[in-house]
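Good morning C.,

I know you're traveling, so I'll keep this short. The sequence:
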Amino acid sequence: MRSMWKGSVSFGLVTIPIQLYAATENKNVSLRQVHESDGGRIQYKRFCSLEGVEVPYGEIAKGYELDDGEMVVLTDADLEGLPLSSSNVIDVLEFVPLEAIDPLHYDRHYYLEPQKTAIKPYVLLRDALHKSQNVAIAKVALRQRETLALLRVHADVLVMTTMLWPDEVRTPDFGFLDDDPPQIRPQELSMAGSLIDSLTEPVFDPGKYTDSYREALESLIEAKVAGEDTRKPRKKTAKSDVVDLMAALEASVSEAKKARKPAARKAPAKKPAARRSPKSA
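The tokens, ready to paste straight into the viewer:
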């Protein structure tokens, strides 16, 4: 595991230096977009929709589009001036029972490891949380974004779970909620309860469940590799670059010749006949 963030837990007058680790990982099989006929990878480039040119990453800013299509451009300097809680402190605000929080508010999970000088206060907070059967509600700034979080104990380690803000959790708005509820007979409710009882386990054991789709996909890939059903994308050769360059140069020369081609000459205007002087008459 690799530490992704260093900071401290602020617990009253106690400060506990910690390191943060992602507690979960995505086990999905990574598939790339490729050209079906030859296996060449599909690549995406950052193009400006107005200029039609590729834009280097250093020139890319963030923008907020208004309703009328106008764009508010926000630079890194603009964002740095926004008020954020300290980016290195998990600030404990209060303690509540875990049952008081709906899991719908949970976002991501992280392990907290104490630095060598902070093992004792770390264990103190861990054991106090475990004994109280409460969780700590905190504020923290990660990736330039302030978020709520909760601290709890899992497998003798403090775990931080970031939470969604209240206005980020949608309120269900379905038509059937406004209608009169259907009448449920006592026999139907009793039968549903019996089904739940028959499928109830005393504890949740995630180890008995597996991702059958991922296993089948991995088997499919292994079978194709074993059968040598693979494609090695051709490398772009220097020759093709030269051909493209020559084509561009030829087009440029052609355009330059057109620009330098002189316009058709006009016939010179005839000079008016010279008038005779009175003396020569």
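Safe travels,
E.
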